[in-house]
Amino acid sequence: MSLYTLKKSKINRGSFSESPRSRTVIPVMHRNYRTTECGRTQLEVSEELGIAQSVISRLWQRFQDDGNVSRCYSTGRPRVTTPNEDRYLSVTAKRNRRSTASDLSRQLSSATGTTVSRQTMYTRLGHIGLYARRPVRCVPLTATHCRLRLAWSREHALWTPQQWSCVMFSDESRFSLQSDSRRTFIWRAPGTRYHQENTIERHRYGGAGWLVWGGIILGSRTDLHVQSVTMTGHIYRDVILEQHVRLFRGAMGAEFLFMDDNARPHRANIVDECLQSEDITRMDWPAYSPDLNPIEHVWDMLGRRIAARQPPPTCLPELRRALLDEWCNIPQDQIDNLILSMPRRCKACIVSSGRHTPY
Q: Which coarse location class applies to the principal site listed for this UniProt protein (predicted)?
């Protein structure tokens, strides 16, 4: 019996139950049969449909045996939620992204009467591409901040690598003996959360540490300045500008640009007077823009290198030596790549209309 005769006779007797796959395979085999005497081969049909030949062979064999290619009855547990309820969950979760799985379950039960477990809620949200993740912590941005960031990015978006090579990016950071990273995971058994070996003791404000200052420029970097006290305008002028920045200004000439953020010590009157007397041009910088400063990633590199030291520093003198050593060990090509990413940072800021960027 031919493909066409089989298909027609089974449908006329009402024993053929179409499925999405059968609606694709059987009509095509029937259509191709009408153009040739014996019908097209399974290989030709599989190539045309983009389906494996084994699938077509299995469907056709099942059709010859019992006249049915639909999915067999499944004994599995039926879905608790309907497609409409799944869409309701998607809209609700996106509307209030801080809702917990229990909150969403209660809202679904209140709206539709369907009760689901937390695990089912995780599964449904995962099917639509939503997963529980920690939110990214960023500095708060006002409308004015966004406007200034956008204007700065547009002004510098077309700068060439030669222009960026004249800019020294600088910043301060703080490193303590106790890491404040919350990305650390441990292996523990259930019910042992508060066992001594499964806890990390940490001072509320990070404990003792060092304040560091550094500057990076294409092809070079300053020495790392380490101090235990808070940065002041006098220290910034007498140490940072006089002992570090002024040397690079003398070596590079009038094209040199010095970038620092808008921290209060950086904008002191004595600092402005020093910059003017030394003929150091300061680059305008939008407030609350750490994502535009490539040295922030250098601090991250430095922190990871300190954390990877074995054994780790256990006292302030050891931490100071580790900071100085690891600062010098950071490959210069990695720093250069960060500086050369400035056009991409500006573009990302423009795309986000001055709001937060992935950097």
A: nucleus
